[in-house]
Amino acid sequence: MLIKTLGIGAAYCLEAYQYCCNLLDDTILLDCPPQAMLSLKAANFDVNKLKAILITHFDPDHSLGFPTLIPAWKEGEKKLPVIGPVGTEEFFSSMCRLVGKEKKLSRVEFVEVEPGSTALLPEAKTEITALKMRHQPESMGYILRNDEGKRLGFTGDTAWCPGLEQMLNLADVTLCEMTFLGKGTEKHLGLESDLPKMLSIMAQDQSLIITHLEDSREKYLKILKDMKIPFGNVIVAREGDEYHF
Ligand SMILES: [Zn+2]
């Protein structure tokens, strides 16, 4: 399992980070922020190699890159699955129509999932299970299981919720949108208040990658150091880094 970190910033990040975006196994794009196309280009990745796009929710820092990404796709026999919560097709189709890119929607197959439902992606050799998250009404997190049985959890924005607990129980690695440094809120996680709860659920061989930062990465690292968290299985993502599991 290979996670390439293209961006680590939250919507209103104080640092000049790209919006949060990740590429799994050079096949699945995790969310589609405004700079998605540029981030993939900067990583020397051909968008035509994508096997799927996974959407957690419709906030602009997670979705607005879609109309600038799809014109780059070549016409082909296989449609590209865009997997997301109920309402994904309407939301992304409307966005493309508004900016005159609706023709390329013929290349896309929208797959809408509900909490607990599973989508199979044979092309990407991955099975995706959706879990309800606590952020926007549509917010979803996912567990992506590859053909070797490894499981990646991806939260999207969320506050503490049962779906997150379930993810932490099941995933080998959780890519977690930990927006705040201090306390979590009704809609977001906070490092100081939520990380100890997360680690109390996780086993020694499970890992956590923290991303979607609202402040500098160095401040997150300092808090981790002060909290005396074992660094072995807690990583604060850095833009451009790759993580193998
Ligand atoms: Zn966000």
What does this structure look like?
The strands form 2 sheets. The chain has a 7-stranded mixed sheet with strand order 6-5-4-3-2-1-14. A 7-stranded mixed sheet has the order 7-8-9-10-11-12-13. The chain starts with a strand and ends with a strand. The chain is α/β, with parallel strands linked by helices. 43% of the residues are buried. It is globular and about 50 Å long. The protein is built from 7 helices and 14 strands. The model has no long low-confidence stretch (mean pLDDT 94). The chain has helices spanning 36-42, 60-63, 66-69, 88-98, 162-170, 191-201, 217-227, and strands at residues 2-7, 21-24, 28-30, 52-54, 80-85, 108-113, 118-121, 126-132, 140-146, 151-154, 173-177, 207-211, 234-236, 242-244. 23% of the residues lie in helices and 27% in strands. Strand 5, helix 4 and strand 6 form a beta-alpha-beta unit. The chain binds zinc ion (ZN). Zinc ion binds at residues 10-11, 59, 61-62, 157, 212.
Supply the key terms.
245 residues, alpha/beta, 7-stranded mixed β-sheet, 27% strand
Gross morphology: globular
User: Mind telling me the C-alpha Rg?
Assistant: 17 Å
The helical percent reads: 10-25%
Ligands (ions, cofactors included)? zinc ion
Largest sheet: 7 strands, mixed
Distance between the termini: 5 Å
> Structural class, please?
alpha/beta
Treating each run of at least 4 consecutive H or I residues as one helix, how many helices? 7
| Beta-strand content estimate | 25-35%
Low-confidence stretches: none
- The averaged pLDDT comes out at 94
Please provide the count of β strands: 14
Please trace the helix and strand order, writing H or E for each element. EEEHEHHEHEEEEEHEHEHEE
**Spatial strand arrangement across the major sheet:** 6-5-4-3-2-1-14
